[in-house]
Amino acid sequence: MKRFFKFLVILLSAVVKTDEGLYAQKAGQARMDSLVQELPKAIEDTNKVKLLDGLSFGYKDINPDEGIKYGQLELELATKLKWKYGTGVANNSIGLNYRNKANYAKALEYFFKAINIVEEIGDKKYIAGITSNIGIVYERQNDYPKALEYYFKALKICNETGNKHGIAVVTGNIGNIYFGENDYAKALEYYFIALKIREESGDKNQIAIAVGNIGGVYTKLRDYPRAVEYQQKALKIDEETGNKYGVSEDLANIGAAYIGIAEDTIPGSNPKYGRKRSLHLALEYLQKGLAISKETEAPDVMLELYKNLSAACKLTGDYKKSLEYADNYRAIKDSVFSKENSEKIVKMSMKNEYDRQRLTDSLKTVEKEKISFLKLQRQRSYTIMGVAGIFLLVGFSFFIVKERAKSERERKKSDALLLNILPEEVANELKIKGATQARYFDNVTVLFTDFVNFTKAAEDMSPQDLIDELHWCFKAFDEITGKYNIEKIKTIGDAYLAVCGLPSPDPKHAENIVKAAKEISALMENRLAKLGERTFEVRIGIHSGSVIAGIVGVKKFAFDIWGDTVNTAARMEQNSEAGKINISQTTYELVKDKFTCGYRGEIDAKNKGGMKMYFVT
Fold first, then answer.
1. How confident is the model at residue 276 (pLDDT cuts 50, 70, 90)?
2. Distance in angstroms (rounded) separating the CA atoms of residues 387 and 395
3. Where are the chain's structural domains?
């Protein structure tokens, strides 16, 4: 929804445009009307090609079908004039319109035609622009490896030509990819490059986008105060430039960040952002944003605002208002459902390039056969054989589409199974490359839990009761760790191993693990009070440091972590006590301002010697 998801302003070239046009743009339909009036008076020369390009480009956001119509006229005239540069521009403009229709196969077809032409001419700036456009198509299909491939090609050309505007745009797009892959450290790296160049150029609209992108990353990292700081900067700029749509987005983002602050607030900590004050500010910004989004008729922003207003009211205890906002959210969601659904279907059907081309070629063959058949029937009487032929062709088309849908369903099943075994990033790497590379992670926190006197409890329980209770406990642990961006690694008998800070960096890795540990401890304490000897007491150990992570095995492979940090976390668990959370000195230094901890002194740990340990109280 927010601008930090899509940074879709595209590269300029020296003369021709990619997403900024040959013509200086007036606002919307008014500009198009003025260009249409000029068209009958235009002479059949390169200036008319430019005029048609202004129409084709200008209609891409208003009415892409009209944009395609004028783009085809532009292409015909440029071809007639033998103006190669103009044919490249025309193909690119047609591609932009097809992209906005979510017809990505057609968009790529025209973009590749355009790039072949401009490569012959040797205009590097324009080559970079079209290359970036191709990257955007792949990004919209969530084909991130392909998108990165084309973005980095574009970035290389921009660096060679010293095109700072291009560098800013492409680095922003690369930041989007890493954002989508939850690699927030990389996203920030590229967003800050884009911001620096935008600040040098003084382009306020682009600065607002770059700043908003950075605020969006901090929201994902749950660094809400910093998210508010950057979103406030974006808001100030958008208010100065009169960008009402941007203002409504900024207000929605700020409101969401304040909700995050309210949910994360620990009593007695950070008085600047108390829970009550944060919720008050969240409602204030969200309601203001809602009023502006209604003026600009922006349903995507309204959806986000109603959803967050419902959440904020629920947190304040105003359940009636929360339900009212939830109803408004559903009403808008239903109104745009058909459009969203159709776009998703198009994206899904075009995910795999080979399948997409095969389907396109098959349907073209069917269409050609239908045309041939219709010509034949004009010469002959309408016979039963003719009718059968039509049904055969239609049936063939249906069969192709049906097989494609079946293939898509099977792919979804396999993807879901893979994601149940591996982190999403690792699963994507495995699907793309057929293998994964072990990676080093410098700042993570490891959690070990173990059930006290498990062996004795197992002797007193039936095998089925034992398995049922273990399943209930570990399922509950999974739900708790899932709330805090924690990756479960595995269970080993009655032990549970999890880690925070990979595969995506998380600056709150230690804090999140301790929060989860406290919930697990409270859960088992309540469970023990209810079931007595039919369940277990838990002890928990935590340590922070570095690990190596990767896939082991070929058959029944598993994602696992190694290193001294894992071993030390296990020692923390072994030296803990029933119902207690035992943390190392390293973890203590990371969370001492967030939690109350009691120093236990130096305790001798197996193969480690004396280690300073703390109980989280």
1. confident
2. 12
3. 1-190, 222-347, 353-419, 427-616
Which pLDDT does position 4 carry in this prediction?
33
Contacts of 262 (CB under 8 A, 6+ apart): 275, 278, 279, 282, 312, 315
Peptide bond into 225 cis (omega under 30): no
User: CA geometry: angle at 497 spanning 264 and 570, to 5°?
Assistant: 105
Does domain 222-347 match CATH 1.25.40.10?
Answer: yes
- Cα distance between residue 518 and residue 531, in whole Å: 20
Q: Which residue has the higher pLDDT, 469 or 460?
A: 469
pTM for the model: 0.50
H helix runs in 162-243, sequence order: 164-180, 184-201, 204-220, 224-241
* Top-level class of domain 1-190: mainly alpha
Report H helices in 202-318: 204-220, 224-241, 244-264, 275-296, 299-316
1-190 matches 427-616 in fold: no
**Burial 151-187, CB ≥16 within 10 A → b, else e:** bebbbebbeebebebbbbbbbbbbbbbbbebbbbebb
Beta bridge partners of 602: 612
Residue type at position 190: Y
Say what the pLDDT of residue 156 is: 92
What backbone phi and psi angles, to 5 degrees, belong to 60? -60, -30
User: How much is the pLDDT for 344?
Assistant: 42
Per DSSP, what are the bridge partners of residue 495? 492
Could you please state the CATH topology (level 3) that the domain comprising 427-616 is classified under: Alpha-Beta Plaits (3.30.70)
| Contact indicator for 610, 602 with CB cutoff of 8 Å | yes
Between 415 and 10, the higher pLDDT residue: 415
